[in-house]
Write a structure and sequence with these properties.
heterotrimer, A alpha/beta, B alpha/beta, C alpha/beta, B: alpha/beta, 6-stranded parallel beta sheet, 22 helices, C: alpha/beta, 4-stranded parallel beta sheet, globular
């Protein structure tokens, strides 16, 4: 309703004093005295991320880039799983023999619900908060893919781990309009007497493979 | 245009509501326990961040900057969102917002079935803004069934109750009460009592709705002007379900939720999780822009809501109330909230932030008892991640209540009498004399056990010692006299 | 040093012993104390309750009375907070008032601030053989950022055993007119504070503010707990010769 739009904008303009400086200049003048970059090297970032993920009770595997398929096999066997759904564009060399991988070419929600789980990579990870960042385009797949299945196995490339939240957000700002989901542990609620219960909706089990040195 | 903040206009005075709730021992126990837990968690994760004060300052300044240029940022957001395939609506008040949302839902169902023959339903992600406008009632009146999907909001909805906290709305319920509500409303023959059992029951009950219901309503934590994106912060995963599975998504966004750029989330996503739930990062954040073909809703509507926010903007002294990022830290630390819980505030917004936001949204009509629902201890200001000076704003709103004639007569007279007495030495001494005389009927053995009128509340739980025969200034005058005499004698 | 005492309206009327104690301690340390009889009230009660118009003349009167004083001692952290936090706001927009307030602020000290920061002393020759717990009032904690000054003074009192107070930073529930306007909630907050004081095991509760102590002491008396309250100044004034009652 353009009537409402005009009225609201007019009301806002009426009650706020006119700024003498430009919006851009004002914005640039906001003090940002907080640190942006971290100081850890890649190995230390890897270690920190592993520690944070373990805090969330995620099973964490480490391997070299060449060992991903083998580690996927190990993780699936540990969970007793024989098949996973995967997004289009997932690197073939990540897939071990002896398991069934179904590509999401428009699976229904029911099919996703019946699956044993999903395997994806991720766009980046933030060590300090144990956060995995999913960018929803190939090769990470649409949002429903990492949401409906009860098990998510995620491969994190060591070179894509940043240390701090500001580093992570600035990278995300460069993603363009792709939807983004940040995952920091499995879902949880503390709504019942403030006792934290893990796993409400979304995948209740998260396994992570940290690949690289 | 009529601003509505839930049922705040009809709510009883804070003092009346508080009196009733203070007598509820279960509630007080639950509130104390819950707030003790979150407070401790928050303190731990904040202590980990040496740059916490710099982050608070940045958060404060980003919000202040955004409000100063709000019109331009709102327009920028609208343009960017529409360019990305979203539809932006504007609502001046609660009724208009409800009408818009009902219309979108009805159209969505009509388009699918050819007529409104399916039972119309929506799944909802936590949004206090929808409680503010009374959305569920409007939906139901239009034959649309709303399903709350946050566990606590589900508890509140099934319990036919009201939320009592910004972040943990069912804080006033313990597990036995939740189990009872679930068994009755989910029609379960048996249900365990552990929190895990209750969460599992909620998961099953809601999962079939997530996979089936075609329309969702959400709020927004942040609306990003530069990109037209929206960000929702959550823990349980129901947000992700509602935001990405249905065909049609409607996000109800207060105009104060806008922030300039996506990078600004680097500040707020550090401040919010640590302040709200005492975590380094909450489990899930969803960030999306307009429509993405093949992924998520094919129709995305944003309803930008005023409903009194321009009233709040009008007053420069209290405008920063709109900086609030709804973390709930002020509630967890407030010694008043601790005794009464959220319902005493008669509004969806409770605790210290509620005491300043609710009256301002309503232009100081109704809710005039709320600015006084505080001992001005300052604990809220200490923990507010965006540095809203709540005590200062409370005093400012009190002055508005007094200015507008909202103070009780007895109090006004007492204040006038006091300022008369304090005008100078002579009057002060006369007033002190009167006090010593006037207390005589009430004094027994040096103590006053019972006072009349508005002072009765004091003596209900405290003894009051009588004013001594000699005030300090009288003692001093006497001492000076003696010194003069002594000096005179020795010279 | 010549120290000008601002006693505060409620101390003057209800707790003259606190004023006498301040005088005794400062004189014992070799200072001279003056009391300007024209003083009345800092205006906090009016200001906090929303009667800003009535508070302004009280501020102006305070500025008049103390214009020529060099060091002002106030045994009430809430009065000091009023002056530091709110006098500048009340003066805003009036350049000469602003200047007067700016000149006033550096001269104003809460009593324990005066002793520790200005006079640089923590041992004042006091003796008080009792168990004591300290309630850090909200103003001293969050406005004055008083830190450990009261504790350090108490630790140097002969015979005194200082016991920690559980949940010390929680408001006692006085809040000025809050105790009248929201009597029920105030009573509930007071009940928790009393419980904490009982849990401390101390015989005496002390603080920098008689406002809090009047409220807490009133409940300790009503509940016949056998505990009592005493302002910090009165503990520091206590000597082997003449103990404070």
């Amino acid at each position: 309703m353009s009537g409402a739009r005009d009225e609201i904008l007019a009301a806002v303009r009426r009650v706020l004093p006119i700024s003498s400086s430009s919006r851009e200049a004002d914005y640039a003048a906001i003090p940002r005295a907080y640190p942006v970059s971290g100081s850890l090297d890649q190995t230390a970032r890897l270690d920190l991320l592993e520690e944070r993920l373990s805090d969330y009770n995620a099973a964490v595997y480490r391997c070299l880039e060449t060992g991903i398929a083998e580690t996927v096999a190990r993780a699936l066997s540990a969970r007793g799983k024989k098949s996973l759904v995967i997004p289009r564009g997932l690197p073939r060399k990540w897939l071990p023999e002896g398991f069934l991988f179904t590509t999401d070419d428009g699976l229904t929600y029911e099919e996703l619900d019946r699956s044993e789980g999903v395997l994806t990579g991720c766009a980046l990870a933030i060590a300090r908060t144990g956060t995995i960042v999913l960018r929803h385009s190939e090769p990470e797949g649409r949002r429903a893919l990492t949401l409906i299945p009860d098990y998510h196995l995620c491969v994190v490339d060591a070179s894509r781990i940043v240390e701090t939240v500001p580093e992570g957000m600035r990278a995300i700002a460069g993603f363009g309009p792709d939807p983004v989901t940040t995952v920091s542990g499995p879902s949880a609620t503390a709504d019942i007497e403030m006792i934290r219960v893990k796993g409400v909706h979304g995948p209740r089990t998260l396994d992570v493979i940290l690949a690289g040195d | 245009m009529s601003v509505r903040v839930g049922d705040a206009a009809a709510a009883p005075d804070f003092q009346k509501a508080a009196k009733r709730l203070i007598a509820n021992t279960q509630l007080r126990h639950n509130v104390r326990r819950a707030t003790d837990v979150i407070r401790a968690k928050r303190a731990k994760v904040v202590a980990e961040v040496p740059e916490w004060e710099q982050l608070r300052e940045a958060g404060h300044r980003i919000k202040e900057h955004t409000l100063r240029h709000l019109a331009a940022y709102l327009e920028q957001f609208e343009n960017a969102c529409v360019r990305a395939g979203g539809q932006v609506h504007w609502a001046r008040d609660a009724d208009e917002a409800n009408r818009i949302i009902v219309d979108v839902v009805q159209t969505a169902y009509r388009n699918r079935a050819g007529s409104i023959s399916d039972q119309m339903e929506v799944i909802k992600v936590k949004t206090m803004t929808s409680d503010e406008i009374g959305l569920n009632r409007a939906l139901e009146a239009a034959g649309i069934v709303p399903h709350e999907t946050d566990l606590a909001d589900l508890v509140v909805q099934l319990g036919e109750d009201r939320p009592s906290h910004i972040v943990v709305p069912a804080l006033h319920r313990n597990r036995a009460e939740i189990r009872r509500i679930f068994m009755e409303k989910m029609k379960l023959d048996e249900l365990g009592e552990r929190p895990e059992d209750l969460a599992e029951a909620a998961r099953k009950y809601l999962r079939e709705k997530f996979l089936r219901v075609r329309v969702a309503v959400s709020g927004a934590n942040y609306a990003i002007a530069e990109t037209g994106s929206v960000c929702v912060v959550e823990s349980e995963g129901n947000g992700r379900m509602c935001l990405s599975l249905p065909e049609v998504l409607i996000s109800l966004v207060g105009i104060e939720k806008v922030i300039p750029r996506l990078e600004d989330l680097e500040v707020f996503l550090q401040l919010l999780p640590r302040s709200a739930t005492g975590e380094r990062m909450n489990p899930y954040n969803s960030l999306w822009t307009g429509i993405t073909p093949g992924d998520g809703p094919r129709e995305f509507h944003v309803v930008l809501l005023d409903n009194g926010r321009t009233n709040v903007l009008r007053d420069a002294a209290s405008r920063e109330t709109l900086d609030c990022i709804r973390c709930g830290a002020c509630l967890n630390v407030c010694p008043v909230y601790r005794q009464t819980g959220g319902h005493a505030y008669g509004s969806v917004y409770a605790g210290p932030i509620g005491a300043i936001l609710t009256p301002q949204l309503q232009s100081m009509e109704h809710s005039t008892s709320l600015p006084y629902a505080s001992s001005l201890c300052g604990a809220c200001y200490e923990v507010c991640p965006v540095k809203i000076d709540i005590p200062e704003i409370l005093i400012h709103l009190r002055s508005k209540v007094v200015e507008q004639g909202g103070a009780p007569l007895a109090e006004r007279l007492a204040m006038k009498a006091a300022s008369f007495a304090f005008a100078g030495k002579g009057r002060m001494e006369a007033a002190q004399k009167l006090t010593r005389i006037g207390q005589w009927p009430f004094a027994h053995g040096g103590k006053i056990r019972s006072l009349p009128g508005m002072l009765a509340g004091w003596t209900a739980v405290r003894d009051l010692q009588t004013a001594p025969k000699e005030s300090f200034r009288q003692w001093w005058a006497r001492r000076e006299q003696n010194h003069d005499l002594q000096r005179g004698a020795s010279s | 040093m010549l120290i000008s005492l601002f006693i505060g309206c409620y101390n003057d009327t209800l707790f003259p012993e606190t004023g006498k104690a301040v005088v005794a301690v400062l004189e014992r340390l070799g200072n001279r104390v003056e009391f300007r009889q024209a003083q009345t009230c800092c205006g906090q009660m009016h200001y906090n309750t929303g009667y800003l118009g009535e508070a302004l003349p009280l501020m102006k009167h305070f500025l008049d009375v103390f214009r020529t004083a060099e060091t002002i001692c106030i045994p009430s952290s809430s009065c000091v907070a009023m002056i530091r936090d709110h006098y500048p706001k009340m003066a805003a927009g009036d350049p000469s008032l602003e200047r007067e307030v700016r000149e006033l602020l550096p001269k104003v000290y809460e009593f324990s601030e005066l002793l520790v920061s200005k006079l640089d002393v923590v041992e004042v020759g006091a003796s008080f053989p009792h168990t004591v717990t300290l309630h850090p009032s909200c103003h001293s904690l969050r406005s004055l950022h008083i830190g450990s000054k009261p504790e350090r003074l108490l630790q140097h009192v002969r015979g005194l055993k200082l016991l920690p107070l559980p949940a010390a930073d929680q408001c006692c529930g006085f809040g000025g007119t809050f105790a009248i306007k929201n009597a029920e909630v105030s009573a509930a907050m007071l009940a928790e504070k009393v419980q904490c004081i009982l849990d401390s095991g101390a015989e005496i509760c002390t603080a920098l503010d008689n406002s809090c102590l009047m409220h807490i002491g009133g409940a300790l008396s009503r509940q016949r707990t056998g505990l009592r309250c005493l302002h910090l100044a009165e503990i520091l004034a206590s000597t082997e010769a003449g103990a404070s009652k």
